[in-house]
Every structure is written in C-alpha cells, then in structure tokens.
Specification:
The chain has 284 residues and is of the alpha+beta class. The chain has 5 helices and 14 strands.
Amino acid sequence: MNGLKKALEFRFERTIPASPDKVYDAWLNPKIPGNPWSSVEKLILDPKADGLFYWRKPGMYHYGYGRFTKTERPDRIQYTWVSPDTMGVESTVTVTFRKQGEETLMTLVHSDIPDTDEGRGFEKGWNYFLNIFPGQFADVPGKKNYTATIEVARSPEDVFRLILEVSKWWTKDIEGESTKLNDEFVIRHGDRHYSKHKLVEVVPGRKIVWLVNDSALNWIEKNKSEWTGTKLVFEIAAKGDRSVIHFTHEGLIPEKECYARCEQSWNTVIKEWLFNFITDGKAI
C-alpha cells in the first residue's frame, strides 16, 4: 500500500427498503442525507469512470478527494479516497447494491486504510453515515411508527446496560429511575416538553420498553398529550462481534402534529447522542 506495511479494511452492510437503482442514485445525490457528499461546504462531483470528486467541510483538515474507477448502475460504485485521515495515501471505497426481494442489500467496503488512530476513525465515520442513509427511503405518507436503527461495536449486554443510563445520552433533566421493571422517570426540556415514563418490559441484553403514561408537549397547538400512551421500544440483536439497536416510538406517526419535529429530535438523540455514548462513552 504505497510503502505502508499495514492497512485496514472496514466492511458495512445495510438493508434498504428500495430498489438497487434508487439506492444507487441516492448514494450519488448530494441532496440525500447520509451519503458522503451531503452537508459539505464545497463539492465537485463527477460520478463517472475517471471522474473526479472533491469535498470540503468547515475546518482546516476536513476535506477529501478521489477518482471514480467504476460506476456500474445499479450494481457497483468504486472510487479512490484521499484525505488527511489516510495520510495522503489513496484508499479504495467499493459500494455494491444487490436486490433482495423488494429491498436492497447495500455493502460498503473501505480498504487500503493506514493502520493509525485516524484510519481507525473511518469505522465510526461510515457507521454515522450509514445509520442515517437508510432512513431516507421511508415512504412518509404510509409510514407508521417512527423507527431508527444503529449499529455499534459493543456487545448486546453492554448496549442494554448503557441504554438504561438515560441521563448520559438523552437529557440531564431527568427525575426518577430506569433500571428495573416498573421503574418510573420524568423527562423535561424546560417548559416545552414533559413526559413520564414507566419501564414495562425488560429482557436483559435484548429488549427495553418504556410506556409514556403522561406528557405535555407545550410547543404544539392542539393535543399537547400526543405522547401519552405511546411506547419507546429498544430491540437489541447481536451481529457478529457488534450489536444492532432498532428503536421504535410506537404511536409516533406522521398524522400527529408533533411528528416532524420529534422525528428530527429522535434522529439526533438516537443516531448521534446514543450512538456516541455507546461507541466511545461520550455523554451529553
């Protein structure tokens, strides 16, 4: 690898509820959150064989560039990737899209990465993007409960224990307990949000369910108790030496007045705050 003896390779898989051609196109569309071209300050993108790309985010060392080597719609995209985190070395990203019934198995392999702290950071970085990207394919008009899925490099037992540490990843403004069955706790966000939760199902290493038995969303105009009677469900499953967390807010549906803002908030809380806390212990 250009004179470097050791190299890393990371592999990620996501099942996406869309056809391969739609997923392929979305991966190359800078307007779609969750791909590497979105949310950048400057972008040059020419997604064809031998086409070049360059992106930059705010900050001296937040940039990357490379060359597309394969663009085989709807099956495969391959490009080189150079950034400060690769020490200027040309690494390779290969993304494949395989039809599975009505869904697509998307596989991303990033290889030839220098074995450094910066290189190892690509694992967290790609997981961040790939935890967001699949959610862009939900059919919002027909979508029922809000859901989010993240994948972390921890055991199901660790994940279960860390989810119960609510004050570390959701809000510090919490009263009560959430460690054993029938425990109750209250969440507040100033005078805008109040919700009282009861731990109604506990399966160690596998599942946690909180019932919202009282709520006041004072920022909406009509039914301020829209959360009352809904459930927050965490389902945990092992995937090799990693864990997949599937979160569902049962009863939080698009027809509710609070849905759009709650969806944005849960995306931050689950895909960023909870993910970061479980991954590296970073509390809010």
